[in-house]
């Protein structure tokens, strides 16, 4: 499928998504409650067969915190981008996709460690690099009292 067909297909699976054709890929802004079911459908549907989670990136958009998923089909060589976000900066949480793509395990732990995003139903939701004294250093509102990091 090309990006136009992928955008239409995603919209047919989940009408609540805001889908657009990006410069490279079809991009879908997904309601957080629909993320897991849409991701599972995109993997299991033979028309899309998104069997590879290329990248999972945590993003601080200022008011919102979110996650961007780049998915690829090794069968068809097409890609799509899913974006999910929340305004809850105190307790950002999304459904884990580790049961769909095992590679999400460390990606989600990294997003938790550096941005404070929790992933519901993750099999091992604990910090990956830092101890709890650090807070979440990749957030835009992070304050470094020791001045290890300067802007």
In total, the number of strands is 7
CATH superfamily: NADH:ubiquinone oxidoreductase Nqo5 subunit
Terminus-to-terminus distance:
43 Å
* SSE arrangement, N to C: HEEHEEEEHE
Main sheet makeup: 5 strands, mixed
Query: β content, as a range?
Result: 25-35%
Number of domains: 1
* CATH fold descriptor: Beta Polymerase, domain 2
Instruction: Determine the number of helices (DSSP H or I, runs of at least 4 residues).
Output: 3
| Strand line-up of the largest beta sheet | 1-2-5-4-3
The radius of gyration computed from the alpha-carbon positions, rounded to a whole number of angstroms, is: 16 Å
Observed structural traits:
151 residues; 22% helix; alpha/beta; elongated; two-stranded parallel sheet; 3 helices; Beta Polymerase, domain 2; single chain
What's this model, at a glance?
The chain has 151 residues and is α/β, with parallel strands linked by helices.
List the helices and strands and how they pair.
Elements lengths: L2 H11 L4 E4 L4 E4 L5 H10 L7 E9 L4 E8 L6 E8 L6 E3 L8 H12 L2 E3 L31
Parallel strand pairs: 2-5, 6-7
Antiparallel strand pairs: 1-2, 3-4, 4-5
């Amino acid at each position: 499928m090309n990006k136009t067909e992928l955008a239409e297909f995603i919209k047919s699976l989940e009408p609540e998504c805001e889908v657009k054709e990006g410069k490279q890929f079809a991009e879908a802004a997904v309601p957080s409650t629909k993320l897991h079911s849409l991701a599972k459908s995109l993997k299991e549907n033979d028309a899309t067969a998104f069997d590879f989670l290329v990248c999972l990136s945590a993003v601080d958009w200022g008011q919102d915190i979110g996650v961007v998923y780049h998915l690829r089909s090794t069968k068809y060589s097409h890609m799509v981008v899913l974006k999910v976000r929340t305004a809850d900066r105190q307790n950002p949480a999304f459904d884990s996709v580790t049961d769909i793509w095992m590679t999400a395990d460390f990606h989600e732990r990294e997003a938790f460690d550096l941005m404070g995003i929790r992933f519901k139903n993750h099999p091992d939701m604990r910090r990956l690099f830092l101890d709890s004294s650090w807070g979440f250093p990749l957030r835009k509102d992070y304050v470094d009292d020791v001045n290890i990091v300067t802007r």
